[in-house]
Design brief:
Layout: E1 4-11, E2 17-22, E3 31-32, E4 34-39, E5 52-59, E6 66-73, E7 79-84, E8 93-98, H1 105-118, E9 122-125, H2 136-152, E10 155-157, H3 168-176, E11 188-192, E12 195-199, H4 211-226, E13 231-236, H5 251-263, E14 268-271, E15 277-282, E16 285-290, E17 311-315, E18 318-326, E19 329-337, E20 342-349
């Protein structure tokens, strides 16, 4: 994302759109982005409504640079925004991670408001963006809360179980993934500054024997070949470890996935799904539950059994994680909502 960015938006009428972009506060030097338009009013949706979702791809950008953009369509008021391109691989940046924002509008908003005050360079959402991904009104609420943040800050969402509902997969793709319906786009990797991030689709089960399983190992192998000691973080939705009193850990997925992650020296593994915060450490690697973005909180049981030796701490609270990323590793602090207290921290050097 050092030299390109993708912008997505929705119009309430059938209309062509234009995206102009360029240096901030200098519209005379703005140029037009490459437009792609997709009609989403067809029969694939449970509850069709008129309108279009669009995207524009902007190329030829410089790294770590502020740009302005404007979306214009029909006779409507234009929508303005800004973005900063990814830093170079040897430059630090700030990232925020949170997840499971479904259901409670006010708690979701409180978390996002606090994240916006952090002014992060990058945001990771760990899945379950809304309760039912087929319902337009829930997506409307989601964007009322997160729209201002997303307009200014790049976001990488993770595919969760609530995105899987019926045609919810299609709606999710029109907003966050390529319009083409390919299961591959539910998992992906990215490079942002010194970080190599991998987003895994834990709804694709069983994990072993799938195309995703082969892809993940190949991606990890390529990351290690490009750089002797890469900073790799892995994100997905369902937990490998948890003492949540609701669902419990995905033990089969753990047996299939964890050896591969350890083989390639992953620096941290972070998931959502359980609506709480938990910190496990296994063989020197932090394994983190972060599902406190607005969904109803889940209770935690007392740690016991074989997994108890890995457990560092946990709280059933709304929260987000802020991370300072450098070429040499990261430091992370967990911020509780609403009092903004730091309840935990973890770090990793590579």
């Amino acid at each position: 994302m050092q030299d390109s960015v993708e912008i997505r938006w929705e119009t309430d009428i059938e209309s062509s759109s234009v995206v102009l972009w360029g240096p901030p506060n200098n519209p005379n030097k703005w140029v037009q982005g490459e437009i792609v338009k997709e009609d989403y009013s067809g029969a694939m949706l449970v509850k069709p409504r008129p309108g279009f979702r669009h995207r524009a791809v902007i190329h030829g950008l410089q790294p770590d640079t502020l740009y302005s953009y404007r979306v214009e369509y029909a006779a409507k008021n234009p929508a303005d925004g800004t973005f900063v391109t990814a830093p170079k691989p040897d430059e630090p940046f700030k990232m925020v991670i949170f997840g499971d924002t479904r259901t409670d509008y006010n708690e979701h908003k409180a978390v996002v408001d606090a994240i916006m005050d952090e002014s992060p360079d990058l945001v990771i959402h760990l899945g379950d963006l809304v309760f039912n991904a087929t319902k337009d009104e829930l997506w409307d609420d989601f964007f009322k809360i997160e729209g201002d943040m997303i307009r200014e800050t790049p976001i990488y969402p993770i595919f969760g179980n609530h995105e899987l509902m019926m045609e919810g997969v299609y709606k999710y793709r029109t907003m966050f993934g390529p319009f083409e319906s390919t299961d591959k786009e539910r998992y992906y990797s990215f490079d942002y500054g010194p970080l190599h991030g991998i987003a895994i689709d834990t709804e694709d089960r069983p994990y072993n024997g799938t195309a995703q399983r082969e892809w993940v190992e190949k991606d990890l192998q390529q990351a290690v070949e490009r750089k002797p000691k890469p900073l790799i973080m892995v994100f997905f939705h369902r937990p490998l470890y948890t003492f949540s009193g609701v669902r419990g850990p995905e033990r089969k997925l753990r047996a299939e996935l964890q050896p591969v992650l350890e083989k390639y020296g992953v620096a941290a593994v972070i998931w959502g799904h359980e609506h709480c915060y938990e910190h496990f450490e296994v063989n020197g690697v932090p394994y983190i539950t972060s599902g406190g973005g607005g969904a109803p909180l889940t209770s935690l049981m007392a740690p016991e059994g074989d997994d108890a030796k890995y457990w560092k701490m946990g709280q059933s609270v709304y929260h987000y994680i802020r991370l300072d990323i450098t070429p040499h590793g990261f430091t992370a602090e967990v911020v509780r909502i609403p009092d903004l207290a730091v309840i935990d921290s973890f770090s990793k050097e590579i």
